[in-house]
Amino acid sequence: MKWLILFAMVAITGCGLTVQQKADSTAIANATTESGEFSSESLTQLRREIIDLQVAYYKINPNAKCLDTDVGTCAIPLDQGVTTEDLAPRVAISDALAAYGNAIDSLINADHKEDIAEAANDLKDSLSSASEKSDELSLSEDQLDAISALIDVAGRWNLERQRKKALIEISESYATVIDQVTPMLIQDLSIKWNSPCRPAFRDGRADNAPTTGADKEDGILDVYCSTAYNLKRNAKVLIDGRNSTDLPHAIRVDAVDAYVMAHNAQVNGFIISNTGVKLLSKLKDSAEDLGRVAKDKNYKSKDIKELGKDLKSLSSSLKVLITKE
To answer: Sorting pLDDT into bands at 50, 70 and 90, what band is 220?
Structure first.
């Protein structure tokens, strides 16, 4: 009888996720969390730095004027059109991505019902906020119900089997969300073929620079790069100009500081675009893999391995970003 009970327990546990399924699902979860957190932090930081670049520009350019507004007042365009209203839906979407990653990780690895329930509630709240603020995101009632069901998973008998069942159920909504929201983030963090953040265009067109490329609409990073280039160009006029030796010391200091700030922004912009877009694009390509991993213990995916590599590449790249002292 004892052996019969033990055999039954092993058979039931075998219906859960294998070690490899857990590892692959966790890799997807980690990449999703990191993509969301990276996008949220990067986009908000880019807006702050656009304002800093514009402030520096107005300090060194005596010809820079304020612009007339619809209400008859004159204002300095510090944010270059990247308003808080523009940023809100993007940040909400990014936060929802991070919440999805955390929820999946908790579902797979957490031992306590409270941890899974907290992650599930955070995911529901984040998705609700994102869907209200952005037209890019919409989920069906069935998909939302699958997320709500996560709260009850840990309270049921044989948690391991429930993990697998719940993972299969939420994989559809996960793939839908990734497919809907990553294009918007990729658009904002990718740069044009002739962007001044690219090494070949940082100081005008280099001899080996391409002459044509694919067109794209301006994203937030494109605005950031063009703002940096404009500041750098004006700083160089003061530093290398015909009357540069007659510049008051304070103005020359401002010009040099502005040049360094702009150049650093160009370097950072290129790093952010390269690594961020690569991870987000790979995440979009592998969106369907979560469901396949959960359903088939023998499923293998090159995209999941690449996700891990891109995640490490992003982490390493962020360490070399130039920051203010």
So the answer is: very high
- The pTM of the full predicted model, rounded to 2 decimals, is 0.87
Sign of CA dihedral 93, 94, 98, 104: positive
> Is the predicted pLDDT of residue 11 greater than 80, yes or no?
no
Backbone angles phi and psi of 204, in degrees to 5: 95, 180
Mapping DSSP to helix (H, G, I), strand (E, B) and coil, where does residue 131 land? helix
The burial of 135, by beta-carbon neighbours within 10 Å (0-12 exposed, 13-18 middle, 19 or more buried), is given as exposed
HSE, CB side, 13 Å, CA atoms: give it for residue 116: 23
Q: Which of 258, 191, 194 is nearest to 230 (CA)?
A: 258
Say which residue, 126 or 158, is predicted with more confidence.
Answer: 126
The DSSP secondary-structure symbol of 75 reads E
Q: Write down the domain spans for the chain.
A: 2-10+28-203+214-319
